[in-house]
Write a structure and sequence with these properties.
Elements: E1 5-10, H1 12-22, E2 38-41, E3 48-49, E4 56-59, H2 66-74, E5 76-79
Antiparallel strand pairs: 1-3, 1-5, 2-4
Amino acid sequence: MDESGYIKHIDAEKIGKAAMMLGAGRATKDDVIDHSVGLIMHKKVGDQFESREAILTLYHQNNMRDEIIETLKSAFVFSKEKVEKIPTILGMIG
C-alpha cells in the first residue's frame, strides 16, 4: 500500500483461497499440501499501517501467479479514517 491508513475489512475466504492456490491447502481431498508455503498476517481489522509497511508475509515455492496477488489485494478494504478494532475474544461459554 502506497499510503498509510487503517484496515477496515479482511475477507478471510479470499485469504484462504490465496493460501490454497499457493499449495497450503486442498481444493480436493487428493491434492497434496506443501508445508513450506503459506502466509503470516501482520495486521488485523482496526490496525493502523504506514505507507509501504508489510501487512502480510507470503511464503511460496516459485509458484507465484498474478491471480494469487490479485486475490490477496482484493481481500483487504482500507480506510483513511480510524476503524474500530474487532475484539479477539467475543465471549466465553460455561
